[in-house]
Amino acid sequence: MKIEAPYRYDIVGSFLRPDYLRRARAEYEADRISYEELKKVEDKAITELVIKEKKAGLHVITDGEFRRLTWHLDFMWNIEGVRRVKSETGNTSFDGEAAAIDDVSIEGILSLKEHPFIEHFRFLKQFEDENTVAKLTIPSPGQFYALFTCRKEIENTLDFYGTNDKFADAVVKVYGEFINKFYEAGGRILQFDDCTWGGFVNPKMAVALTGFSEAELPSYMNLLKDINNRVIDLKPEEVIINTHVCRGNYHSTFFSSGPYSEVAEPLFGGENVNAYYLEFDDERSGGFEPLSKVSGDKKVVLGLITTKRAELEDKEKIIERIHEAEKYIPLERLYLSPQCGFASCEIGNKLTEEEQWEKVKLVREIAEEVWNIGTKN
């Protein structure tokens, strides 16, 4: 099988954790079972997930992010120099719902030793076959940089680096080293998950989050784009790097709203990824017009099937929307997926596992019809 990504019907990455896995995680967090005991449960859950992914006809398999508490923080906590900060109360607001998500802090110079995500990927890669390839998702370098440079409550970054430029260099170096380890482990498809752009679509929210004025935001966005591109420039040629952008995904709630027009120039025009997995499941994302800014022959995966609600979308309406997007991107460069993962954090979204797989099935059915894909593909 030729390794490529995206595929006409695709997924973002995370899946609902089975109840037995969530119970085991809680036992581990409470120090009632060992990591080895938790890992056995994780291995079982991921093995079962891959069987379901293949049964659904997916060509890209993931581990569902089953070994993580959140889509981004677990990656950061395992970088040397980053400290996990426990949170007992709601510290982030998603559409009115307080989310008690642990935090991060810089406690020293960044370095990469043995990152557990590499071993996690090796476990997943064993399930590849002639029809499937394994994908790893991690927070983007720009997301990592932004988390430590645009929030007032994290002020100690410069205590270790002196300037933001030196911190940016350290982030690029660590990510470059991680990608090389990923490549050595046999990884070929890497996805940068990036909610910074999902915040910048709303300038007022971006001002509140960053402390910059609206006039300063374009410069900061270009800086984040450049950090991502510097890392992409370091990747081995065979590695495909795509990116996913959304406006928050916690327990079926969202963090931000706004059209892509505010970020189209740096993101679509300037970021050197292979493809964009974009949230387009409701009016919060605006129209498809900003896709006209997508440069070169880059691909766009339309996230038209929501993961936030159980109700299945009307197939014909989704097909109509794909053809609306075709006004700005040729159909051969368009693909289809759910709007986000089903469980960006361990709590997951408000639907059942059965409803989750019905969503995946719908994505495949629509893609096969729109792109005339044989049912065996």
Task: Please outline the helices and strands.
Blueprint: H1 19-29, H2 35-55, E1 60-61, H3 73-77, E2 80-85, E3 92-94, E4 97-99, E5 103-111, H4 116-125, E6 133-139, H5 141-149, H6 157-161, H7 164-184, E7 189-193, H8 196-200, H9 203-210, H10 217-234, E8 240-245, H11 264-270, E9 275-279, E10 299-305, H12 315-325, E11 334-338, H13 353-370
Parallel strand pairs: 1-6, 6-7, 7-8, 8-9, 9-10, 10-11
Antiparallel strand pairs: 2-5, 3-4
Helix pairs in contact: 1-2, 5-7, 5-10, 7-10
Would you summarize the structure shown here?
The chain has 377 residues and is α/β, with parallel strands linked by helices. Helix content is 40%, strand content 15%. The chain has one domain: TIM Barrel (Alpha-Beta Barrel), CATH 3.20.20.
Plain-language structure description:
The protein is an alpha/beta fold and 377 residues long. It has 13 helices and eleven strands. It has a single domain (19-370), classed as TIM Barrel (Alpha-Beta Barrel). The chain has helices at 19-29, 35-55, 73-77, 116-125, 141-149, 157-161, 164-184, 196-200, 203-210, 217-234, 264-270, 315-325, 353-370, and strands at 60-61, 80-85, 92-94, 97-99, 103-111, 133-139, 189-193, 240-245, 275-279, 299-305, 334-338. The model has no long low-confidence stretch (mean pLDDT 91).
Percentage of residues in helical conformation: 25-40%
Strand numbers in spatial order across the main sheet: 1-6-7-8-9-10-11
Supply the CATH architecture: Alpha-Beta Barrel
Run of helices and strands: HHEHEEEEHEHHHEHHHEHEEHEH
Q: Could you please say which CATH topology applies here? A: TIM Barrel
Q: What structural class results from the helix and strand content?
A: alpha/beta
Major sheet attributes? 7 strands, parallel
Low-confidence stretches: none
The oligomeric state is single chain
Query: From the alpha-carbon coordinates, what is the Rg to the nearest angstrom?
Result: 20 Å
Distance between the termini: 11 Å
Principal-axes shape call: globular
Number of helices: 13
Number of strands: 11
Total domains, how many?
1
**Average pLDDT over all residues:** 91
Report the top-level CATH class: Alpha Beta
Strand proportion, as a percent range, falls in 15-25%
